[in-house]
Every structure is written in structure tokens, then in C-alpha cells.
User: Which sequence fits this backbone?
């Protein structure tokens, strides 16, 4: 089995690295981190070059990329900051969920807006989901860790989402702060 990148994947790798070096120098990354700001300008650059369209079928305006293409992009975005990967992947993975489970009308309505940058998708989870996952693991016991049961995936995803997104209190503080409200 050959694990080498194709010529196109090498070009993708180089292009995304150059894009990130140009639009996300260390000072930009530090400024966003300190100010707790969303990378709007960088997201716009991703839209402009089509990174959001990468994994979607051409019939919907996508580029028809595959899983290896996604990993290449994810690695290059996360190399600068895991937050960049989460900003990109939230939109892409929610869009893929829409692609798999949405109606034809929903796909035709929402995907062009995602690709143009008009909208962003995000994932939202909270501690209640994490608590349900913990209770489920207690019920399943050792079986909850077995790949045969969906419980292991739910537990893993709930824990990772709570860690990546922050607690509900952190989310409330971020929302309140963005609305100009004083956070205690």
C-alpha cells in the first residue's frame, strides 16, 4: 500500500501552508488568543481559496476532496493553532452532516451560503450531555469502552467537545462579554 501524497495533495499541502503563513503569522495568532476573538479575516481567506468546499461533491459546488485532503488541511490549520482547526472544522463537519442527513432543499439552500462565507456552522454541546455520557458509561460498565457499542463514541465525543468548547459557564461568559454585558 502506498501512503505517499498524490501530486495534487502535495500542491494542497504547500498551498495551505503558504496561506497560513501569510494570513496567520505568530503576532496574529497571539492577538486573537489574547483578545479571545474569532479568526474572521482568516476564515475569509479560507472561503476565498475554497477550503470550506473541499470535501463536498462537485454537484453542490464542492471540490470533491477526500479524507486525506481533509487531514492535510486540518494538520496545516492546527499547526498554527488548534483554534483555527476548530473554527474551520465546525463549519465543514456540520456541513457534511447536512450533506448526509439534510433534504435536497436544505442542501441547496445552506451549502452555497456556507461556501460563500455568508454563514458559519458550529457545534454546541454542554455539561448535561457530558453527564448523560458519564451515566451511560456507569450503566454499560466495561462494555461502554467496547467499540461494538455506540456508548464509547458518545462518551469520547461528549468529553472532547466539553474540553474543546469549554464549560457552559465559560460559554455564557463569552456570549455575555460579546454582548457588552459585564461578566462577574
Assistant:
Amino acid at each position: 500500500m502506498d501512503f505517499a501524497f498524490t501530486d495534487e495533495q502535495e500542491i494542497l499541502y504547500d498551498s495551505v501552508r503558504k496561506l497560513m503563513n501569510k494570513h496567520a503569522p505568530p503576532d496574529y495568532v497571539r492577538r486573537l488568543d489574547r483578545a479571545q476573538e474569532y479568526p474572521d479575516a482568516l476564515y475569509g481567506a479560507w472561503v476565498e481559496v475554497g477550503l470550506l468546499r473541499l470535501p463536498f461533491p462537485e454537484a453542490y459546488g464542492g471540490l470533491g476532496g477526500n479524507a486525506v485532503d481533509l487531514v492535510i488541511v486540518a494538520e496545516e490549520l492546527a499547526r498554527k493553532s488548534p483554534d483555527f482547526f476548530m473554527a474551520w472544522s465546525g463549519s465543514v463537519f456540520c456541513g457534511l452532516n447536512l450533506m448526509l442527513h439534510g433534504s435536497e432543499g436544505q442542501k441547496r439552500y445552506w451549502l452555497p451560503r456556507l461556501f460563500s462565507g455568508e454563514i458559519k456552522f458550529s457545534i454546541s454541546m454542554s455539561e448535561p450531555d457530558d453527564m448523560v455520557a458519564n451515566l451511560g458509561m456507569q450503566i454499560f460498565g466495561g462494555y461502554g469502552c467496547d467499540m461494538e457499542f455506540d456508548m464509547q463514541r458518545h462518551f469520547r465525543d461528549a468529553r472532547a467537545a466539553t474540553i474543546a468548547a469549554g464549560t457552559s459557564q465559560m460559554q455564557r461568559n463569552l456570549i455575555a462579554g460579546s454582548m457588552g454585558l459585564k461578566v462577574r
Summary: The chain has a mean pLDDT of 83. Residues 127-178 form one domain.
